[in-house]
Amino acid sequence: MTKQELALVVIDRLKEEYPDAGCTLDYNQAWKLLVSVRLAAQCTDARVNEVVPELYASYPTVEALAAADVEEIERIVRPCGLGRSKARDISACMKILWEQYGGQVPDDFYALLKLPGVGRKSANLIMGDVFGKPAIVTDTHCIRLVNRIGLVDGVKEPKKVEMALWKLIPPEEGSDFCHRLVFHGRDICTARTKPYCDRCCLNDICARNGVE
Questions:
Q1: CATH superfamily of the 30-129 domain
Q2: What pTM does this model have?
Q3: Dihedrals phi, psi of 24, to nearest 5 degrees
């Protein structure tokens, strides 16, 4: 089976296993996802979802958050870790959104990359979830699983994994595929315990094949 063929089988099986998989960060506006993605660095999505309601209650718009004191943003987001740098990035990002984009999040990948604190993973998430455009989000689950499954071979650098997956995953499937990898990585193909290969829907086609 070629990697392209393997990819299509993996997509179909994960789609059946996790039909409703989506972003696990809570948001109802594009700029809020941008904030949450920055807070999620080295932090769980669950913790971020607990923290952001206070932030949005205090600063309910891009304009309000852009005008907020960085120290006050830091106080609220501190439970997510790296509070000072995250608060600085959020403040700077919101200022740019307000001053250059009228409070809107740009729908251009490279424009997103120019925003403070936004890397390729975050930009792809925004492109896929907010704008419905092709996206490959190479988070830790994605990188771990595609290596174990055999879609890539010993590639750990996020950008290189992303570039490899663009060649294998149909563009319209990329965003949902990556969300499903997150669910599968949390439930079955775990990082901190031995993977539950006996319960894995990919067991018979996985390069790892249940063996360390």
A1: Hypothetical protein; domain 2 (1.10.340.30)
A2: 0.93
A3: -95, 5
Query: DSSP string covering 150-193, please?
Result: TSSSS---HHHHHHHHHTTS-GGGHHHHHHHHHHHHHHTS-SSS
Catalytic-labelled residue, pool 139, 153, 156, 194 = 139
- Is 144 within 8 Å of 191 (Cβ atoms)? yes
Location of structure tokens 């700077």: 92
3-class secondary structure, 28: coil
Q: Which amino acid is at 211?
A: V
Check residue 105 and report its DSSP letter. Answer: P
**The residue type at 132:** G
Residue ranges of domains in the chain: 3-22+136-199, 30-129
- On whether the CB atoms of residues 94 and 62 are closer than 8 A, the answer is yes
Cα of 206 vs its chain's centroid, Å: 23
Active site residue 139: yes
Say whether 121 is catalytic: yes
Q: Which of 121, 156, 159, 176 is catalytic?
A: 121
Instruction: For residues 89 and 95, give the distance between their C-alpha atoms in angstroms, rounded to a whole number.
Output: 10
User: In a structure prediction context, what are the per-residue pLDDT tens digits for the chain, which is 212 residues long?
Assistant: 999 999 999 999 999 999 999 999 999 999 999 999 999 999 999 999 999 999 999 999 999 999 999 999 999 999 999 999 999 999 999 999 999 999 999 999 999 999 999 999 999 999 999 999 999 999 999 999 999 999 999 999 999 999 999 999 999 999 999 999 999 999 999 998 899 999 999 999 999 874 33
Architecture of the domain whose range is 3-22+136-199: Orthogonal Bundle (1.10)
